[in-house]
Amino acid sequence: MTIAPERPSRASRTAGGWAIGLAIAAVVLVALAWIGVGILALLDAIEAGDLEAFGWVLMAGLFLSMLVLPFAVILGVVAIVLAAWARRFVVLGVGVVSVIAAVVLLIQLVSSIG
């Protein structure tokens, strides 16, 4: 006689779906922040020419990064909690990596400003 494995509850499956969505959102936000940092690095590499013309791009990259990273951390933490509850360990790993990347980028940006 075999015992069928216990089927996850509906709430657990719903939490797993939300965890996947939030982890993807956190990864997208971290990618947007990397784009902002890339814009900053590109503008720092330009030594010749008038930097005032690129000032708005510089500010847009900085603003994008600083605006997006706190939301990436929040979404990543919520995804971690939901994934742990739903026992979705791959999503849990994605959430952890996105939170670590967002925190490292945020620290780097804050230290470069100050």
Hey, roughly how much beta strand do the residues contain?
Answer: under 5%
The run of helices and strands is HHH
Class by alpha and beta content: mainly alpha
What is the gyration radius calculated from CA atoms? Answer: 19 Å
Name the poorly predicted regions.
Answer: none
What fraction, in percent, of the residue positions are helical?
over 70%
Main pleated sheet: none
- Mean pLDDT level: 77
The shape is rod-shaped
Question: Treating each run of at least 4 consecutive H or I residues as one helix, how many helices?
Answer: 3
Give the end-to-end Cα distance, rounded to a whole number of Å.
Answer: 67 Å
Task: Describe the protein.
Keywords: Membrane, Transmembrane, Transmembrane helix. The chain crosses the membrane at residues 20-43, 55-82, 89-110. The structure is a single chain. The chain has helices at 10-45, 55-86, 89-113. 82% of the residues lie in helices and 0% in strands. It has three helices and no strands. It is mainly alpha-helical and 114 residues long. The protein has one domain (12-57, 65-113). Helix 1 packs parallel to helix 3 (89-113) and helix 2 (55-86) packs antiparallel against helix 3 (89-113). The chain is rod-shaped and about 75 Å long.
Distinctive features:
114 residues, mainly alpha
Fold topology:
Blueprint: H1 10-45, H2 55-86, H3 89-113
Helix pairs in contact: 1-2, 1-3, 2-3
Keywords: Membrane, Transmembrane, Transmembrane helix
Transmembrane segments: 20-43, 55-82, 89-110
